[in-house]
Write a structure and sequence with these properties.
Layout (H helix, E strand, L loop, with lengths): L1 H13 L15 E10 L4 E11 L2 E5 L9 E4 L3 E5 L1 E6 L12 H4 L2 H17 L2 E6 L2 H13 L6 E4 L33 H13 L4 E5 L18 H13 L3 E6 L2 H10 L3 E4 L5 H10 L2 E3 L3 H5 L7 H24 L19 H8 L4 H7 L2 H7 L15 E5 L14 E4 L2 E4 L5
This protein binds zinc ion (ZN).
Zinc ion binds next to loops.
């Protein structure tokens, strides 16, 4: 202890002598001009937008006077939007014919390099934040993006997803002894076991806890809708996570598991495939968000799936679309999420048009992928074009309120004040 104290004292004494040349010279402000800008908070389109960015954040929107010495980029006939947010991605993997043996063939290095490549595709598609369920690889990707050493979306990671032995979050389909999972890997049985799992994920970088409340499609276990985590386990997980100020995202297909997870206090229901009127009423009452992940229904490649998995997909996916339609009509809060990795990374924005197809206005769909997703994350620093927010911005051609598929063709993306796609300020 004494030697540490001496070192600290020496460091403090030396500090005034540290060369100022190590401090970063502040970059000049950036002025972004666009024909339109969507104010997702007020819900209105603003013509002739000027956004000023300084030190990675938006410093002014349509100010009366422009900063001097600014660099300017004029994007022309585009709509400037807050960077999109996908609340359900798996950046460290992508489904393929080998997907069901990946657990015993892939290394962490494979996952990390995959995450880096998929992160580039994702941010180029206009997604500047993801909530990712991809193990250590995407915890590390988030660090690299924040440091500026890799181009990718900001990551709100869950590390490993938490569920029961033999359940959807476990590694299934192999002989006993092959990749048995521990609470550290997310697998636990009983309240204290899953509490250990929660604590371990948070210790190693989780900013959200992802759980498997019910069985799932892409795993080799039983009925797709069955509740898996018991009520006592769900309550223990949510209580432990909330002691850390961390929210819980619950993968849930079947009715019983959805309701149990909502009653336990999870923040988001992922998929929510079998919503009955009681589940919808409960979600509205508790303010629980639905994260639909509906684009994958069109895109999932059933041909590469084992027969059991394929039959589960064919059973649940059409029901899920009816549930989404009902949830939108009933006014359940819907936050954007796609399950990227179950379909090819980079196609995330296709989800927007489907929200419109199933009953949202284009404005509501765009809010789901910006300001509503930010609320579901429990953040206030992004999701809108306002002074003080992170300068995470995307430009799409034309007017996405007239043609929501414009979101699929971003021409320009900025992450924290740095252009990652399209024209540089000059
Ligand atoms: Zn998923």
């Amino acid at each position: 202890m004494r030697s540490i104290a001496i070192l600290l004292a020496l460091a403090a004494a030396a500090a005034p002598l540290a060369p100022v040349a190590t401090a970063q010279t502040p970059a000049p402000p950036t002025v972004i001009r666009a024909a339109r800008m969507l104010d997702v908070v007020a819900g209105r389109m603003v013509a002739n937008a000027t956004v000023v960015v300084e030190n990675g954040r938006i410093s002014a929107v349509n100010p009366a006077t422009m900063p001097r010495n600014a660099k300017v980029v004029d994007l022309g006939d585009v709509t400037l939007l807050p960077g999109f947010i996908d609340l359900h991605t798996h950046l460290s993997s992508e489904i393929s014919a080998g997907a069901f043996t990946r657990a015993v063939t892939n290394t962490l290095a494979d996952e990390a390099l995959g995450a880096a490549a998929n992160g580039i595709k994702t941010v180029m598609a206009g997604f500047t934040t993801v909530r990712d369920f991809g193990g250590d690889a995407t915890v590390a990707l988030g660090h690299a993006v924040e440091r500026g050493t890799l181009v990718g979306p900001r990551v709100v990671p869950a590390r490993e997803s938490i569920g029961i032995t033999g359940g959807h979050c476990d590694v299934t389909g192999f002989a006993p002894g092959v990749r048995e999972q521990l609470p550290e890997d997310g697998i636990g049985d009983g309240p204290w076991s899953v509490v250990r799992a929660v604590r371990y994920q948070i210790k190693h970088g989780a900013q959200v806890i992802k759980i498997c409340a019910t069985a799932g499609v892409l795993s080799l276990e039983g009925p797709v809708g069955a509740q898996q985590l018991a009520d006592e386990e769900l309550q223990a997980i949510v209580a432990e996570a909330s002691r850390h100020g961390v929210r819980v995202a619950a993968h849930a297909h079947g009715n019983a598991g959805i309701k149990a997870a909502v009653r336990a206090g999870v923040t988001t229901i992922e998929h929510g495939s079998e919503l009955d009127d009681e589940a919808i009423a409960l979600m509205k009452q508790r303010g629980t968000y639905l994260v639909p992940t509906t684009y994958l229904v069109d895109r999932i490649n059933l041909a590469v799936l084992p027969p059991l998995v394929r039959s589960k997909a064919e059973q649940i996916l059409p029901i899920a679309r009816e549930s989404l339609r009902k949830a939108i009509a009933a006014g359940v809060k819907v936050a954007f999420g796609t399950d990227a990795g179950v379909y090819p990374h980079g196609e995330n924005a296709r989800e927007f048009a489907l929200y419109v197809k199933f009953g949202m206005t284009p404005l509501a769909a765009l809010r789901a992928g910006t300001v509503v997703a930010t609320e579901a994350l429990g953040r206030t620093d992004r999701g809108a074009i306002e002074a003080g927010k992170l300068a995470d911005l995307v430009a799409v051609p034309g007017d996405p309120l007239q043609d929501i598929t414009a979101t699929e063709r971003p021409s320009w993306v900025m992450l924290g004040g740095r252009v990652v796609k399209g024209a540089e300020p000059r």
